[in-house]
Amino acid sequence: KKQAEKAVHQKKEQSKTKCRKARRRHVNLVAEFNRRQRKNIWLETHIWHAKRFHMVKKWGYCLGNSPTEKCYRACYRAMTNHCLLQDLSYYCCLELTGKENELLKQLVRICSVDTGLTFRVARCLSGRFQGSLNLYRADRYPEDALGPVTFIWKPRDGSENRQLWIWMHPALKQDILNELKEIFQCSEPEKVYIPEPATTSAQEEEQMDVVLSLGKKRKKEDKEGEKAVPVKKIIGDGTRDPLQSYSWISQTTGVVISDRTMEILRYRLIGPLSHCVLTETLKAASLQTV
């Protein structure tokens, strides 16, 4: 009897760890990636960086900090002779939409000509060039600096309304956003972002257990895996709570402030062959006129 009880206690429990082939199925990969993005959002190039860089968690994102190999010489050669690409998608983007006069009237309060360019400079106002400047709290220059930003205007299309995109570091986003909402008097949200119900951990485990339940044959698992609907990838913003609003409108000026962070990807190309890479990569679409 003692030997039988001993054998029962020593019997190993059936391992719940799935084989690599099962873990690499698309439905299981998406569910696992979504689970790992609950606290820190991944960039579109995260998988590539995770295989080659030491990753750090900053400002709500998971970013590549330093390479795992000594590739500094290769990066230097790429910058000087070829082309090097950097992923800057973690930078926050705020979109201002409204009449050009109303936008410039209030934006002049948070910058100064003494520091260089402003939002009103002609070459940037046309939408052909990107500008950069330092922002301050309204009417507080040279005190209370907010930080450096870059901006680009959407080219004119014959309408009174213009669009302005302002890019900033995620550490500066909340201060700049609050200042913009104050000077444009945007207090009421235009619409509230209601995220789709995300799959909870219990639901994910249940879904994965259905697909890969223990004791079933491999053939049945494959059939169920084909019919299983992949979990939708979470598209979020590491600097904003999903339950918060992402767009605000002013009742007096009609200016709309929208948070476009992680909706517009941004890459930086460095090197003498940057234009060649863009020329070979981007193809002009054929316009069809009715």
UniProtKB/TrEMBL annotation:
<dbReference type="GO" id="GO:0001682">
    <property type="term" value="P:tRNA 5'-leader removal"/>
</dbReference>
<feature type="domain" description="Pop1 N-terminal">
    <location>
        <begin position="4"/>
        <end position="98"/>
    </location>
</feature>
<dbReference type="Pfam" id="PF06978">
    <property type="entry name" value="POP1_N"/>
</dbReference>
<dbReference type="InterPro" id="IPR039182">
    <property type="entry name" value="Pop1"/>
</dbReference>
<dbReference type="GO" id="GO:0000172">
    <property type="term" value="C:ribonuclease MRP complex"/>
</dbReference>
<dbReference type="InterPro" id="IPR009723">
    <property type="entry name" value="Pop1_N"/>
</dbReference>
<protein>
    <submittedName>
        <fullName>POP1 protein</fullName>
    </submittedName>
</protein>
<dbReference type="GO" id="GO:0005655">
    <property type="term" value="C:nucleolar ribonuclease P complex"/>
</dbReference>
